Amino acid sequence: MTLRVGLTGGIASGKSTVSAILAELGAVVVDADLLAREVVERGTPGLAAVVEELGDDVLTPEGDLDRAAVGALVFADPDARRRLEAIVHPLVHARAAELEAAAPEDAVVVHDIPLLAEGGRADSFDAVLVVDVPTEVQVERMVRDRGWTREQAEARIAAQAGRADRIAIATHVLDNTGSREELRAAVERVLAELVARA
């Protein structure tokens, strides 16, 4: 029987690191961010629908989706964000379902979903892993690793669900304030527990 696991975490929490560790340990990872890019690649019906809804300004001169332009638009305009999500989310869900259906029968299928707490789908998984760090650590990482200003980092954090909201949906919380080795050990423990329970 396939074990369905949701994985989430705030920006700069280390969710991508946990996702990579799970893949190394043999899990089938379905990455919602990657799928969100795939469904709006040049030539896709998804990209055509986004352009029809948001206009040609969201395209690069080459005809690809201009992620920076879209990001600026939807960050400033909640209605534009809802319209974009109404196009992209169903396409991502359909593609994720295809990938899950193609997984081996006894696989651990991990759905890496940045906005799982916001989407209200946590109860559709057998387990939910939340990668957690204090807000101040998120800010420090974004300033250090991404070159953002403190204000940019705080605004992006404020646009996501809060820590308490994410922890509320968790069956397992992975603290990522230590070393990568400590994080890997925690992921290994949780995965072993999930497999044993299944």
From TrEMBL:
List all membrane-crossing ranges: none
UniProt catalytic activity: 3'-dephospho-CoA + ATP = ADP + CoA + H(+)
Just give the chief location class: cytoplasm
This entry's Enzyme Commission designation comes to: 2.7.1.24
Which SUPFAM superfamilies is this protein grouped with? P-loop containing nucleoside triphosphate hydrolases
- Where does this one sit in the cell? Cytoplasm
Tell me which UniProt keywords the record has, alphabetically. ATP-binding, Coenzyme A biosynthesis, Cytoplasm, Kinase, Nucleotide-binding, Transferase
Pathway named in the protein's UniProt entry: Cofactor biosynthesis; coenzyme A biosynthesis; CoA from (R)-pantothenate: step 5/5
Q: Which residues bind ATP?
A: 12-17
| Protein role | Catalyzes the phosphorylation of the 3'-hydroxyl group of dephosphocoenzyme A to form coenzyme A.
Its name, as the record gives it, is Dephospho-CoA kinase
Organism name: Nocardioides zeicaulis
